[in-house]
Amino acid sequence: MNDPQSATEPSAAPAPGSRRPGGRTARTRAAVRDAVLTGLAEHGYPALTVEYVAEHSGVHKTTLYRRWGGIEGMLADALALAGEDRWTAPDTGDLDGDLRALAHEVAEAFADPAQAAAPTAFVAAAFQSPRAADALRAFYEERFRRCETVVERAVTRGEAPAGTDAGAVVRAVSAPLFLRLFVTREPVDAAVADQAADTVLAAVRAGAFVPQPAGAEGGAGQS
To answer: Residue 154: which CATH number?
Structure first.
């Protein structure tokens, strides 16, 4: 479940959701993405300007405005580009190992302040820009969707009850980590990552992630 900065393959169009480009178009898009990431890390979203991106990407301001419309469009496309990588969820052989691997990946992605600067700025930008918020949500929706396979495999192996909500499980692993990273600003290390994974694993085994029928009284579904 890597962060937006670490997923960097330039494989789609200059505007999110459009046709796939190649050659110069892909290089231009990647250069703009890199300049946006650098600017976010150095100055944060409020101070990021089209002039900065033009200077650091080598792409003329006129082109930036024509193709991206402004900073919001460039930020959204940088996140869209980040989501086009080939990242796959871990497959350690059991649910315990997979959940721990997911939690550790989040912790490690933000362990280095220098590397964490840009993705942290992405999150901050989402509170100030509706378009950035939509792009960030789309990025993580796709990431979580890819992670659901770890729960689906666990159900098949009999490690989780049938009907377990895979999406809820993978979100629950990262939720306490993101709370510490972006809300309470507490440190996140391997021990904290293990605790998050262990807590979710116990809840999965107890059937807490099996949706209850409407009107059902108390208690989690059991397998």
So the answer is: 1.10.357.10
Residues 5-20 as b/e (b if ≥16 CB within 10 A, e otherwise) read: bebeebebbbebeeee
Q: How many domains does the chain contain in total? A: 1
Q: Is residue 71 part of a domain?
A: no
Measuring CA to CA, how many Å separate 17 from each of 14, 21, 41, 51? 9, 12, 26, 26
The Cα angle at residue 194 between residues 206 and 174, in degrees rounded to 5: 80
Query: For residues 124 and 46, what is the distance between their CA atoms, to the nearest angstrom?
Result: 10
Amino acid at 134: D
Domain extent at residue 115: 95-205
Dist. CA 144–CA 141, nearest whole Å: 5
The sign of the torsion formed by the CA atoms of 132, 136, 58, 114 equals positive
Residue 10's pLDDT band, with cuts at 50, 70 and 90, is very low
Residue 154 resides in a domain: yes
Crossing angle (nearest 10°) for helices 71-82 and 50-57: 50
Q: What Rg do the C-alpha atoms of the chain give, in angstroms?
A: 19
Integer angstrom CA distances of residue 34 from 29, 44, 58: 9, 14, 11
Examine residue 39 and state whether it is found in any structural domain, yes or no. Answer: no
Is residue 200 in some structural domain?
Answer: yes
Q: What is the pLDDT of residues 184-203, one digit of tens each?
A: 999 999 999 999 999 999 99
- The answer to whether 114 and 36 are in contact (CB under 8 A) is no
**pLDDT tens by residue, 77-124:** 988 887 778 889 999 999 999 999 999 999 998 888 877 888 888 888
